[in-house]
Structures are given as C-alpha cells and as structure tokens.
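Deliverable D5.2: sample structural annotation.
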Amino acid sequence: MREVYFIKQNKEKWLGIEQVIQGKVKKNPDDLSSLYINLINDLSFAQTYYPKSNTTVYLNHLSSQIFQKIYKTKRVEQNRILYFFKTEVPLLVYQYRRYLTYAFLFFTLFTLIGVLSAIYDKEFTNIILGENYVNETIENIKKGNAVGVYQSGSTWGSTIGIIFNNIGVGAKLYIYGIAGGVGTLYALLSNSVMLGSFQYFFYDYGALKDSARGIWLHGVFEIFAMIIEAMCGLILGASILFPKTFSRFNSFKNGFKDSFKIFLSTIPFTICAGIIEGYVTRHALKMPLILNLIIIFGTLAIIGFYYIIYPAIVNKKTNNPINDAVL
C-alpha cells in the first residue's frame, strides 16, 4: 500500500486519537485499550513498510501518549504519590532517556572545561569561586580542615538555605529550557565549570582526597539531580524546536507536562542533599573513612538505579512497546 493512501485511510482515526490524548474527547478504559491496539497495528505496519517515514515517527509518539493515557485512567490501587514515583516518572525517564545522555555528555564536557581553565589560568578559580572563598579555603587546607567552610552557621539554618538555593538552581536549569534549550545549556555550563575548577583547586593544593570525603557526601544527590534537571530543560527546549507532526503549541504542552513531572522527581533528592550537607558534611573528616564511602557510594547507587536502571525495568514490566521519545 502506498504511504499516501495509508495516511488518507487512517487520518481521521489518528486525529480522533489526538483529541482523546488532549482530553477533548472522553473514552472509558476499554475504548482506550481498543484504540491503543488498533494504533499499534498501524505502527507495526508503518515500521514494516515505511521505517524512515515521518508517519512512523508520528505513530510512535501517538502510541506512547495513548499508552500513558491508559495507565492514568486505570484504577490505581496504591497511593497516588507512590504511583507517581514508582511508575509514572520511570516510564517518562525511559521514554526520554536520550536526553539524559545528552545532559550527562554536556555536563562532562563543561566540567572538563572548568578543570582545563583552572589548570592554564591560575586566576580562573578566583574569578569563578570568589577571592574571599578561595582565601578562606586555603587557610582551612593549611589547618588540615579542607571542608571547614561547611562547618560555619547552624545546622538547621544552613540546611534550609542550602535546600532553597539548590532548588533555585535546579529550577533555572529547567525553566531556561524554554529558550530552545540554550538557556539550560548556559546554566549547566556555569555550574559545571564551577564544579570542575572547584575540584581542581583542591587537587592543586593537595587536598583533593579530604575534600572528596566531604563534598561528595551531599554532592552525589546534588550533582546527579542537576543533570536530571538539565535533561528536563532539554526536553522542554526540544518540544519547542522540534514539534514534528504536532502544532508547536501542542508539542510544547506535551513537553512541558512530561518534563515537569521528571523535574518534580528530583526535589526529594535535592532536599536530602541539603540535609546531608547541613548536618553530615561538617563532620566529614571526623567520620571513619568507611562511613564516608558507604554514604557516597550508597547515594550514587540509589539515584543511579532510580534514573538509569529502574526505568528500563518498569518499561519492561508494563509491556510498553514504545522505545524512544520522538522529540
């Protein structure tokens, strides 16, 4: 069958499914399942005869959207918040997993830029971190207390300030994505260059090991969440730049809805990072090294599993045939 005839034959049905996805037409769960099965048949046909066509891309995305619609209309026996974190977010992360890869690659590149800049320009660290902070930290290093800056202020006061600051940074990484993703990349560049120069600064003064014992206690959750927030900003930007077969406004609505849910999932990790930084990091050099390592690698295992491994498990468990986001 020629593709033009295939589109003409099914166009009205697909447009009707779009109306259902957008909430303009209501369907019960049985009707939704029937639509989904019908659409999957069309998708299989298109993948077989028009594998590189925009029609296949469109049907793939439409199938993904109605699959999520079915899941939302099913009666959820468990707590809604638990369902959100246990099923909804992992499915979205899996769907948009390519953007996690992009965010991680940009983060790595920008961090290396920070390291190289600090290596070749000794004043760079002063510019990025501030001269007062650098001088104070140098004095702390000479006293054998590389993480002394984390010991100032009260525990609860520091924790609250850190949490709100980190949530603000994450919000910028996400919201700036509305500028086609460029704003997100700029915010990621600023934070990653700071991290790279920050770490080299401690290396240059022979205190990298001691600093790592403290910084990465909270840094694993904080930095990993930052990468996920950048991922959300890139999804938002891509929804505007690459609407595919949807109108730009509808593409933006879908991109915002999905990316915002992923962004919300980072908040608990950001809060935990703030609590660790406020209450635990100040004791980093007094703790047994084994305890530092347990916390650092334990937090890495938790957040790495949730955003990298668990989404694939949930996708397989739910028998979702959609493999990639098409933005």
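Annotation notes: The mean pLDDT is 87. The chain has two domains: 3-74, 80-319.
The annotation will be released with the project's public dataset once the embargo ends.
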